[in-house]
Amino acid sequence: MEIKIDPMGLWYHGSHLELTELMAGSTITQWKELAEAFSHKPTGLSYDDNGVISHNGKEKGYLYVIAEPITVDVDIYQHPRTVMDKNAEFLTKRPLRLKLLYELEG
Q: How high is the pLDDT of residue 39?
């Protein structure tokens, strides 16, 4: 599956924790549904060629948006050990401010 990055687009983080700041080394994505899935803390997650996500997470989750500008290769970089397609997962190089978008039921 091809995932395009929008340099001006939103970046998301999904977590089962209530947060205000994301630590360096955390995972972010522009794929909103992927962040939502990760918010449920799954031990298994997959998606098909059409982007339909399956996971076994049961936790209540929170979807956040990064609340400051981000530049690829300056603030974030491709996850080097991902098993997902290119541009699905990025790691943060520094702490980033978060804004809660909404809570997700488990």
A: 97
Residue 86 inside a domain? The answer is: yes
- Rounded to the nearest 5 percent, the helix, strand and coil shares of the chain are 10, 35, 60
- Give the pLDDT means over successive 10-residue stretches in the chain (106 positions): 92 97 98 97 94 95 97 96 94 98 93
pTM: 0.94
Q: Which helix H or strand E contains 36, and what residues bound it? A: helix 32-39
Name the residue range of residue 96's domain.
Answer: 12-104
What pLDDT is recorded for position 106? 79
- Quote the number of domains for the chain: 1
Residues 97/66, Cβ–Cβ less than 8 Å: yes
CB atoms within 10 A of CB 34: 22
Q: How many CB atoms lie within 10 A of CB 84?
A: 16
| One-character DSSP codes across 61-103 | EEEEEE-S---BTTTEEE-TT-SSPTTS-EEESS-EEEEEEEE
